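User: Before I run my own analysis I want an independent prediction to cross-check against. Here's the chain; please return only the structure tokens and, at the end, one sentence I can use as a sanity check.
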Amino acid sequence: KSITGANDSDYQTVLITFSKIIPASDNTEIKVKMFNASNSDFGSYSYAGIGRHDSGTTLTKSDGGASVMDLISNIGSDTNEHGVSGQFWIHQPAGATQASFNGQFFGVDSSDNATVMNIAGMCDNDSAAVNGIKVYFGSGNIESGELRMYGLKNA
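Assistant: Structure tokens:
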């Protein structure tokens, strides 16, 4: 799923909410890419994340120069699984600078275990405005769920 309209110059920050994004394939990871006004993917991202699995295991994700951001792995698609929900914030999306982002996500994996992940980073070396994001899974399509975008203005 893709959502656009983030590069409106009135918006200082854009919030994109994820509501029970469930994959069609079991045991896959949810991924995010941002794109510019001409719908081209940004070249790369530098990001880091830390989270916790309900078993007590600490989870980390990080990459410099990544072509895509992996948010949470092993998401389940079986009956009664919850997919991924959360918030993704893009700061200064309309600016001609490297946009930064952060997000908080909750997911349920294919073994019905809960995972919480916090992630932050920036678009590397790209001076184009961020127009939107694409959310997808490493394998299969999105079976169900909803993305919503909210633009936040300065007072």
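Sanity check: The mean pLDDT is 85.
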